Structures
1.
Amino acid sequence: MNKYIFVTGGVCSSLGKGVAASSLGALLEGRGLNVRMVKCDPYINMDAGTMSPYQHGEVYVTDDGAETDLDLGNYARFTSGPLGRANSITTGQVYDAVIRKEREGRYLGRCVQVIPHITDEIKSRILTPAREDADTDVVIVEIGGTVGDIESIPFLEAARQLIHELGKTNAISVHLTLIPEVAGGELKTKPTQHSVKAMQEQGIQPDVLICRAPTMLDESTRRKIALFTNVDPDAVFTSYNVDTTIYEVPLIFFNQELDQVVLKKLGVESRHTDLTAWHSMTERFAVRKGKVRIGIVGKYMELHDAYKSVYEALFHGGLACGVEVEPVKIDSSRLEETDNQENILGPGAPGGGINGILVPGGFGQRGINGMVKAAAWARTNRIPYFGICLGMQIMVIDWGRNVLGWEDADSTEFNQDTKHPVISLLEEQVDVKNYGGTMRLGKSDTVTEPGTLIAAAYGQRTVSERHRHRYEFSNKYRGEMIESGLKIAAYTPDGSLVECVEWPEHPWGLGVQFHPEFKSKPTGASPLFRDFIAAARDCMRAAL
Ligand code: GLN
């Protein structure tokens, strides 16, 4: 019998529900269980693919090419079960499926309603990952939004029905709330009491509470919360603020025996306890020496979540190389407005010089010329440079403009009339009008050329990474690019598409058409992020 854990949040958003759910997943994996993670998103979009990174943070891409919510990125960093289309459920998908069935006449003339038709569709989707994967022991279902939101009601109702149908020992509710601190340092439990009441109004009695608080809750506060909420005192946990790293949260929960309480409630025997990977990660965190400053030159700089997996992967790279990584967020349009890059990237910049430049993925024209300037700066000043997707295309545009002397070299995404379209659309993409899910998406193989940085990083000929883009390196310029010195370091297996370019005679200048950040973990950094940070660290030390 598969076990289900429904994770909900109350009081307010941004309490770290994704991190809490993922950390619980990590602990249960540490107990030898096969854990699957599912996210329910109450928004009406079919998926996150068409949402602006400003609105909703990054779009996380899975192996099977689903464009999902960034919480799936958290799951991927904390747990190791497969993640794909079936692990991300949105209101849009649910209604789309129900309305299609209605049009096909599959409801046999009945009036189609939220209960039972929408809730049945939600329940069936929640049950799908375990149904399709016989190895599953536990499914953790995170319900997005905050209890009390109109949008999440059908998902909570589906959870209520499932808890009832599966039985209390097979399905439990874990509820995350906030314990605010008021003037004088007093911790307040009232919002938590109200939040649990809101859950009870939906017919769900939380079995476990995780309270987000500035510091560890004392025994009397936990007893008080328990008394008001019908939750056992030993099932009230604290997710206190950490000034180290979010990757410590699994161990913080472990020390409070969260996994033991959850397993007991679900009647599951733990197979073993192995949290070695998390312990060694915290050890590596503690012994980092020195700091490298990495300039991230992009266009969505105000919102940290817009490049979430990139920042996380940089941190992982730092862990692997024994250094702290300071991300320096640089809005590329600032570089467009000035010819004095020195004050933004060089030793004249606030806080000192940048030791490495990363241009992440992106869409649209704004800020592109600033990114090209950043690439040219890194190339000519021998600063390590890492281009991801758009960042690789930027390297090719810089090479066309500044090495081959084609002033108008560009991607046709930004200039349709350029005489030198060094980046352009594939034939099959030219007539695409529908923007949802029509890019080159998901995992595919890349074959590396021996003797290149990318081959050294992965240590293998064929690598598998994920894509999310529409434009490609234009093959008609391959010859001139190679003759002028640009290295083509990896291709698709049939050789038809360029997957990686590298700068010659440079400490570390590399761009890839795929997104290695999606597969990076704190317990195992992406090889390219690791080597980029190592190069930045070595350049920084050489300059001292
Ligand atoms: N806009 C570019 C393309 O569609 C790059 C996409 C990306 O960086 N993810 O090809």
2.
Amino acid sequence: MAEQKGVNPFAIAQQQFDEAAELLGLEPAMRAFLRVPMRELHVTLPVRMDDGRVKVFQGFRVQYNDARGPTKGGIRFHPEETIDTVRALAAWMTWKCSVVDIPLGGGKGGVICNPKNMSATELERLSRAYVEAVGRILGPEKDVPAPDVYTTPQIMAWMMDEYSKLAGHNAFGVITGKPLALGGSAGRGDATARGGWYTVREAANELGLDLAKATVAVQGYGNAGSFAAILGKELFGCRVVAVTDTQGGVMNQDGLDPKAILEHKKRTGSVAGTPGTQPISNEEILELPVDILWPSAIENVITGANAGRVKAKVVAEAANGPTTPDADAILYKNGIHVIPDFLCNAGGVTVSYFEMVQNFNHFYWTEKQVHEMLDKKMTDAYHAVLAASRRHKVHMRLAAYAVAVQRVAEAVKLRGWV
Ligand code: GLU
């Protein structure tokens, strides 16, 4: 599922921002300031592997904008990571925190590595090396990482522990997505997909779509994708007809059992070959005639080349950056309702924010309380974006940008930076 060659995610993020800046009539200095990161750190990480040799990894942390609060955003461990991907993701985190109106800025981190070929002990040493190298710019009041593609609660635990050693005291609030036993929040595990479903529920109401009769396809079966499938069935009684991961995919028109597929993936490493299913590819799944399509894997999968063949009524972007700007124009023209990434997948960072608040206060909420607060944040954000889309007569992504960029620009202005 490699991203389309030649498409630079940061160029896309800037192009999207430029359109929003134009729509909002932002002054030139504000545009110049908001279209690039405020800070970034590049680090080189020598890590001892299990065979005794040292391997050298490259890592990044980008703090895109902290006008509204400490920067926030995950760390990806990915073999094809690039600084421009991290910059784009950091920009999207800025707009994401703003669109759900939580008091945080945006950041992102990445390490070029292939965690699938690394042992647990190698991953632990890499995680600790990363924090040793970027720790000086992290902190509960400065920059707070979280999980992202191929990073897990266990990795967050190692990173929190390493930072706490550097700080000389427990600093649970330095990172989110931690295990429950170490200051994690109830409800963080499925928060990205759950928050996304709250926005889909609102969209379905607007479109007159009955979710109990709706069909669903999910590309990507990591944290966001697997919970998108599981919760679609559990919360709304949707029929999940197809899911894929990097190795392949499975389909059954009568409906799949998302939990059985997850078990199969845990056992074999892939959803492919789950008993009682037919195979389907990552390209085919995007073109299925389903009600709700969840691109939940990686950037640039819906492009000018295939957007015309997307038949879903709603595209719920659990992944960051799955749709290119030329594809956006086609989907909009074809009347497909896109719930854009930084709105649709903001549930993860919203519960991360709740996790930070709980860590600061040493007081923990129940899962039910977290779900209710998440629902309110997502529902309010969806309707703010829908209203902007109707007011400006633009697609949902540009509307989401308008809402988010406006708030960040206001904070920058009030602080007197520009
Ligand atoms: N990595 C997730 C995202 O892209 C979560 C970030 C966070 O919780 O800080 O939204």
3.
Amino acid sequence: MRYEVDFLVVGSGIAGLSFALKVAPYGKVCILTKGDAAEGSTRYAQGGIAAVMYDSDSFDKHIQDTLVAGDGICDREVVEMTIREAPDRIRELVQYGVNFDLDRKGDRFDLHREGGHSEFRILHHKDNTGEEIERGLLEAARRHPNIELKERQFAIDIITQHHLGQRVTKHTPDIECYGVYALDCDTNRIDTYLARVTLLATGGMGNVYSTTTTPVISTGDGVAMVHRARGVLSDLEFMQFHPTSLYNPAEKPAFLITEAMRGAGAILKDRNGHEFMQKYDKRLSLAPRDIVARAIDNEMKLSGKDYLYLDAREIGKKHLIEGFPTIYAKCLSIGIDITRDMIPIRPAAHYQCGGIKVDRRGESSIHHLFAAGECSCTGLHGGNRLASNSLLEAVVYAHNAAMAAIDEYKAIDFKTEVPDWNAEGMVLNEEMVLITQTKRELQEIMSNYVGIVRSDLRLQRAFDRLNLIFRETEDLYNRSVLTEPLSELRNLIACAYLIIKMARARRQNVGLHYSLDLV
Ligand code: FAD
Ligand code: SIN
């Protein structure tokens, strides 16, 4: 099937939905999403969204905290723009129907604090902020007559001059995006979506690693598509590991214990119940994430144990049960009463700071292709994202991209000469087990050699092992009917390759990139 839409959006998390709602008054919008619409990192977000809402805080302080967490390599102008725009974007979320908790009097937002923040500035909805944001935006999108939301549609590749038979390299000056090819997961048909403007909002790539807080859909599809289309990517060496995921080895994704709990007074402790963060940073358990995750990693290696503890008991029973109901219930379900017991925790891959390089308007190096949310790289996070700045970045850049798209779209014609996907001569791939096993191998390689602490030797080893997996998988791809698992595996391999390549090129320890050879 062939479709023509003014605005094509790939992804139905906070970034995709925010963009769709903004452009919808101007034309036909189609949102493709590979699973159920609500599934994505957005709905798992716990802590909240950072913004300066009152005079007790200041833009300058939030800017400074972001720059410090980013370890000196944030784009300062982007930081300033994002943080100053935040209150307007928050008010829009509220207008779309998103509820944030209010304080006791009910006239101000209740604000939390997280690692690296010098003030209480995190708007939240209990400890399930993302679920509330996703609910509000999804309901608003479903109500809009110009928005069509198509679930179980897997975008395979963006369409460029390459698909018209032209040679496209990373030096080709004016690569253009004409839309995407997408697999209908119910019929296995590959459809052609032509668009005036396309937005990638495909989220992160946490599944490159074995232990991740991100859902199974986070397989770096947008980044891999842009890589194949020869677009510009940046900063992928900065994979953020969240210090405190619940240690419950069989569970995937790893359940998060929000940093807001440390903001409320919970303390990291070793297996003997002793605090240890004083050895690493004077901000103790509330130091920025890269520092805390490295400290935990080191303590785990010193003790030879798989987990440490977060002690939340001082927060008090009432506050824990009312303020963190999701975490309380989750822990109780596996026999941990957080009002009485310490919580076993370990770091888990959580957030990709790098991605598709975009300008201030959210436009990528490929014409008519925008990106927003976790798949993009705006320059806001530098070497390490400040907690709760991700949801903020997603709404700010969805807005900027929408404004730019509205400006541009009328002057862009559909590229009707684009051919349909050619699937001739492909055999049905019956070796699903190979795909599952290869994915596991890839995750092991990345976790063992490209984790929190790296070295030249580890990166080289990862690269060599990945190369073998890459060749085997390309061979399978060339012989097989395209399926979602196979496509995701190729994308994960591409992302792993890019992380290793950029990590090897970064010859300085900064933010989340830490190599023993650069100490
Ligand atoms: P997502 O919400 O991940 O959505 C991606 C969408 O793209 C999905 O709809 C998916 O189906 C679709 N998609 C992907 N690939 C394809 C494809 N090939 N074809 C079609 N559709 C596709 N950040 C904060 O700021 N504050 C927090 O408190 C916070 N807590 C977090 C807690 C957890 C457990 C996790 C995992 C992350 C947290 N983050 C937090 C990070 C933040 O939630 C994410 O970065 C953000 O939600 C990403 O939004 P997104 O719209 O970019 O992507
Ligand atoms: C958390 O709640 O700790 C996650 C916040 C974030 O990833 O920004």
